[in-house]
Amino acid sequence: MSSDSLNAQLSKKTSFLGLKLWVVIGLGVGAFIVLILCILSVWVMCRRKSRSTLDKKYSLCQIPNVSKDIKVDRVVDQNYLDHPEPVYLSVHDKSSDKNSEKMSVHLGRSKSSDVDNISQCSSMYHHERACSSQSGEEGSSGNARKQSSYGLPMASPLVGLPEISHLGWGHWFTLRDLEIATNRFSAENVIGEGGYGVVYRGKLVNGTEVAVKRLLNNLGQAEKEFRAEAEAIGHVRHKNLVRLLGYCIEGVHRMLVYEYVNNGNLEQWLHGAMRQYGTLTWEARMKVLLGTAKALSYLHEAIEPKVVHRDIKSSNILIDDEFNAKVSDFGLAKLLGSGESHITTRVMGTFGYVAPEYANSGLLNEKSDIYSFGVLLLESVTGRDPVDYARPANEVNLVEWLKMMVGNRRAEEVVDPNLDVKPSTRALKRALLVALRCVDPDSEKRPRMTQVVRMLEADEFPYREDRRSRRSRTSSSMDIESMKDSSGLGDVDSNVGQQSSDKQTSEAIVIRTD
């Protein structure tokens, strides 16, 4: 009965086109299924389209426009054409159990008149074995380049790599490339760690050794550092700047690929692990500092916009096999346009190296780097950390302690006691002069880096024109002639001036080489 009544109900005609009820129900179910299928199809298509757009964005569009718009103009300066004379550096090996065995580095320039025939090599070796190399500097940016003083052009470390892209910051590496190079970012390949990333040693498929800086995340300060570092150094070339070979932007991954510098950094040679190989000699230290000065001179005065590094310190000065400096870690760098005397920014850097006016006001320009270089120079002369709380209270701050020592006519006592061969009086006074001028509390009185380079290179003090103005600014001065009688400082005449309001912050040495 019930089944007959159900059949009767389904067989009844409806008002919809006179169709029977079971036909209308069937059409409704079919339409619902078709609607579901259409919705699924549209969702899948949108998903594929968004994925394609995302991939295209990461592969092509994540180069910030500002990095593409940076224009760098090379300024020709005769100073860049000059090269220091050859020096012979001795590094005393204290790691041997035998009698103190001497290791040496011979740094010389080839005298061949034919640049194409210049050959070079330099290494650390025992006793009288020697090898010559040519020392100089190289700077280039955009279309402007200067002839490398190395003579023969060096093969590009990117030769043999797939030509993926050369947008903006050098070669574009895939995540797969760098995973292979670093053995999937193995812990064994870690060579450094920082607040925003880890640096791995790697080897590209063409055999080139590289350092891969991998950001821990791509948010906030880490992302800013990644872009700042790439924009600051991606377009410039200089012998004393670590070379950026390329980058990787893939998904959330952000990586920068640099040339690998395998001889440690200045901090390790002065205070850390590299000391097991010997003590860095005075000449080697001055060579590293001169290279650093040339790199900063190039960043500040030879390109546009100028680059303010903002974190000059001994651990950021890498050293290659020839004891050439390689300034690294541009994560905090800022670009300063030609119309800008300074910029206001959040105070960042390393305690002990930060310029006082920047720390107090946040006003940043290249003078901040010059102050940091002055601290770096004092660190190299004395072998002391910029701030060392393990020392007596009056020796904690390196800059203040050194000013006190100079003011008390004890300049020769500041030299690193680990140096087996002390510098000449003239060399010491020149280094102290440069350092004290760089850390002048009045940023306007600090020299430009080109002037610092000339002072470090010169056999004679080049600032005779500054004597009169400095004498007129100094309310009282003491002839360093008296220092000869009390501490035996040799044949170099100097003056130490102190502002009466702050005896520890405005001393200056003036060297005369008449």
Automatic annotation (TrEMBL):
Its main location: membrane. Its EC number is 2.7.11.1. The keyword Coiled coil applies. The chain crosses the membrane at residues 21-45. It comes from the Eukaryota. Signal peptide: none annotated. The keyword Transferase applies. This is non-specific serine/threonine protein kinase. It comes from Oldenlandia corymbosa var. corymbosa.
